[in-house]
Amino acid sequence: MAQSAKEAPKAYRRSEDAAAHVGGLRSQGSASPGPPAGPGRRVMEDLGETECLRLLGAGRVGRLAYTGRQGLTVLPVVYKLHEGSIIFHTVQGTFTEDDLRTGITHADYQVAFEIDQIDPDARGGWAVLVVGSAHHVDTEAEHMSIIKAGADPWPWAEAEAVHLIRVQPRYIHGRRSYPA
Q1: C-alpha distances in Å from residue 6, one per residue of 2, 9, 21, 115
Q2: Structural domain spans, the chain
Q3: What is the pTM of this model?
Q4: Distance (Å, rounded) from C-alpha 164 to C-alpha 171?
């Protein structure tokens, strides 16, 4: 029997607990038989990690989600995929510059990152969710390896990017939906 939203825990201490909960609900199945065959029927396809990384590599703008000073925060970021990690900049005076620092040496903030492409007219689309740690690129060597590889995502030369952040995926999941 599937766990209802009312029975689901209200908060998770660790993002892997949330991922395990969602995975458990998915594997438990649904008590309802689903929509009948015919018009309106949808196909939901789970995407493998390779396809998720391909979609992430083709994207440029995603949404970063984390718990910050003001509570749950979701912001768009310009990013690039580099060596399997999501790279983006912070700008001085923005939420992410201060919020993504734990204050503990070598401790990374846990975040979620999402990209999608939805076509309401075609009634289809896809979404990819990444959960991982937001590592601050603090060393010059690491920063230069990203720049030399052409993975610097910063598109605006006139605005000063303050800091690079690398999200190292721990969990990647995607889904594609289209009419049957």
Answers
A1: 11, 8, 14, 28
A2: 15-179
A3: 0.70
A4: 21
Per residue in 129-178, pLDDT tens?
999 998 888 778 877 777 776 656 665 555 565 678 899 999 999 999 99
CATH class of 15-179: mainly beta
Distance CA 64, CA 155 (A): 18
Closest CA to 25 of 4, 43, 48: 4
